[in-house]
Amino acid sequence: MTLILDGVFVRRRGETWLDDVRLELSNGMTTLVGPMTAGKTTLMRVAAGLSPPDSGRVMVDGKDVTSISVRKRSVAFVYQQFINYPSLTVYENIASPLRLDPGFRRDGIDRRVREVAELMGLAALLGRRPAELSGGQQQRTAIARALARPVDVLLLDEPLANLDFKLREQLRADLKAMFADSSGVVLYATADPNEALTFAAPTVVLGEGRVQHIGDAAEMYARPPTLAVAATLSDPPLNLLPGVVRDGRIECLGAEFPAPRAHPSGRTVTLGVRPHQVRLERGGPGALEWPAEIRLAEVTGSATFLHLLLRDQVHLVAHLPGTRQFTPGGSAVAYVDPAHVLVFDEDGARLPATGAAEVDLHG
Amino acid sequence: MTEVGEEPRADLKRRNNRAWWLVLPVVVSVAFTAVIPLMTVVNFSVQDVFTPSDRIFVGLEWFRSITRDPEVRSAFVRTLLFSAQVLLLEIPLGVALAVCMPRRGVWVSVALVLVALPLLIPWNVVGTIWQIFARGDIGLGGWAVNHVPGVDFNYTLDSTDAWITVLVMDVWHWTPLVALLAYAGLRSIPEPYFQAAQIDAASAWATFRHIQLPRLRGVLTIAILLRFMDSFMIYTEPFVVTGGGPGNATSFLSILLSKIAVGQFDLGPAGAFSLLYFLFVQILCYVFFTVLTRSGR
Amino acid sequence: MADIRLEGVGHSYDGGRTWAVKPMTWTWRGSRAYALLGPSGCGKTTLLNIISGLIIPTVGRVFFDDRDVTGVPTAGRNIAQVFQFPVLYEEMSVYDNLAFPLRNRKYPAKEVDQRVRQVARLLSLEEHLGRRSRRLDAGRQQIVSLGRGLVRSQVAAVLLDEPLTVVDPALKWTLRSKLKEIHRDTGHTLVYVTHDQTEALTFADEVVVVNDGAIVQAGEPAELFLSPAHEFVGHFIGSPGMNMLPAEIVAGVVRIGPSEVGLAAADGVHAGRSDVEAADGLPAGPVRIGVRPEFVVIGGPRRSPGVAATVTGTDRMGAYDLVHTLVGEHPVLVKTEAGALHEPGSAAFLHFPAERTFLFRDQVRCGSLAPLDGRSTA
């Protein structure tokens, strides 16, 4: 099974919502990650056939389905809101798509409903109506309904976004296991980078209506090709610092280090530093060091988020392990190993490290 | 989730067109009930009809004479004035009524039934009720006005009294519709909006002005359109109560039209009259709708 | 800033059959930033609405300092509240939205302007002040709602009901630290309702964990994280939550199956002490071990006390790895540095550090683990 979006454009009210989206998805799960206004929902709706693209084609298994109504396609869609039939029991909710499918006989339906309910942990709740369920159970019912009938294309649009943090954590793990050996195309949209990283599925980064990059989430995290990808996959957010190239070295707020690659002098670059790469102890020779003012410390128990101000203007957040006490207004020195600094040029493309010195940016 | 609610493009040629067959019965029945009669009227409006077999094509003659007819003109102004007064009274009154209705509890259904009561009465019965109610001798309302404040009130003789009677009757009959629409609009406002207003120490007026009124825009657009169309074409009630009198005081366009068409059997002028009437209502509704929906953006 | 005192306050929506908030006595101290953390339906929003006066509690009294405000309506309590979804006066500009609560309270025009601009600067809304609020995207609308909550200088408390739900993940971090800074600068009493433990822990001076209408534990974030008093707190705080494993105390030694993992030390006795008497406080029998994924040590020397496990997989989370293991049939998660190599199916050895491992009975903490070598040296 394959799903192909070929040069899809969507324009609404003078704005371009999808800009030449080209995607080729095959069996199993793909994660679609991007910020809230990236166009994820629009892309999902086009892929489902709920709204037609202004131009471009949607193909399932090599067949152009762009003009085929969603009713005739083998598609299931799970929304962020928990959408179930309020007057039907959980059992009937899950059974409803099967009853419309002539391929299912009565006993087949019953078996399938119980199978899916078991999988989603709903077996004990089959007799209840949606109003009698918690939010997590309601969303699990909605997902079960989408899963019940084997479909070519299953689309999930931020299905966990409205759930409690802890439920999200749990369902995330459940879903990963469930989609592991899916026979159809599963496209899962999320704004939460942690979901993309947990699923460890092929990941599409979407930003401003364009496909920014496609690849393995952990790999993209470690070696982001562009600033947009790095920012989308970072939680807590990436620290951004201004830099200038001078004679093969990059200067940034008084610190400097060798430029990763021959880059013309005088060009400005943006440095991306992940919060957990910032240290308060000098790690080794050549570490970048910035004297800083302590603005704020957030102590969570497992870690301390220290908000620093460099040269009275640039914010830098350090994610330090363990609990540590700091006095706001005091001063500290922030150290960063240049090997862990992501350097982006003016267009947002990352400059790879010099030669073979591409270090593993994990950890 | 930001891009929900987009409208599907009308890209019909690439889509399944079979649903159009389902529309066919409607098209056929509308053709018989609306299009064909309308065409007959168009036909009449450009001819001088003596007998059904004996008629002369007169071009736009009737349109010219109708637009110049002083009786039609004064009826037009009268009807417009009536509609304006109806809107000015019923919309604020309806909204006020809706705001005063309880939001929850057992009194909701009681209030709804009480308010909706006038809507359940047939038009001509409303007319009859008010014809009697407003009479100075045996009607409770008319008698009360004559005796309690001691005003001389007689709608069969005094044209102002007749006008007021018809207006009050319409307000009594149709304000509930506005109220029900507005009430439905008010009910759809989520509770946190009212809580936020309390926290911001907003007065009752400010709450109404900044929370309730902006969110009533949609239903009020519908209410204004409905009430305008209906009041501009009012016929039954004044026909029953005053018959257009005294003199021409309550002779609205529709009453005049039926007099020309049915009373005098002037089919040509009546046809032209109907068409102009129809066009005017259409245009004004379009203007209302555009203005009201545009201003909301 | 006033202390807000709840005395025997409880609320029932069905005339006392079930309690949404069970009667409780609790004081919110002035000028502190609180997080009210719990799952949805635990009563945290009800509790918030009792403070703001949107709900009159079924039982109990509410005091702002010494003033009984139980029957005082919201407008008379001088409270600011921000809701989960943007609540705006849609036809007003952003500026007018921010000014609205001040104008209603008859602030002088000059002060209104000054405060509005100050809040707009704090929340980076300056360039949007002239725009009609309904034209903003949902995230920015919520920032305006937040601004309306923060614009008043004299408030008894600012109550925030899951205010960052509709905001982009990256912006959440920024806004939260901004809120914390604003709190430090203004000294408002803040109560922040959330189901998100990261939000609660990073934001609050003190986290109040609520479950099923009652306060389970309250304390500084680090205290709740490092020393949970209840299984629920262990589970609900931390991401992922605490690992819970069934074990048994036999003659003062905690065992998982045949493996000895440490001595059982009753609460109240310092867990780190090599003190044999410590074990006397805990009777033998089943117990549950709780240890956070951050503190489980994987691959330590096999001689030390610990337990054998099987690796089932690894989530590479970028900044760290999450190793999934099974001890018997019970999953144990281990948070390790990124890049660690643990093949699925391979055997691993887990060690539970004494000072970070706790013992629970009937969900409530009864003790902690003490080093096993304490016995051998004794």
UniProtKB/TrEMBL annotation, chain C:
Entry keyword set: ATP-binding, Cell membrane, Membrane, Nucleotide-binding, Transport
Top-rank taxon: Bacteria
GO cellular component, one term: ATP-binding cassette (ABC) transporter complex, substrate-binding subunit-containing
UniProt cross-references to Pfam families, sorted A to Z: ABC_tran, TOBE_2
UniProt keyword Membrane present: yes
MF (Gene Ontology): ABC-type ferric iron transporter activity; ATP binding; ATP hydrolysis activity
Matching InterPro entries: AAA+_ATPase (IPR003593), ABC_transporter-like_ATP-bd (IPR003439), ABC_transpr_FbpC (IPR015853), ABC_transpr_MalK/UgpC-like (IPR047641), Mo/tungstate-bd_C_term_dom (IPR008995), NA-bd_OB-fold (IPR012340), P-loop_NTPase (IPR027417), Transp-assoc_OB_typ2 (IPR013611)
Keyword Nucleotide-binding listed: yes
Protein name, per record: ATP-binding cassette domain-containing protein
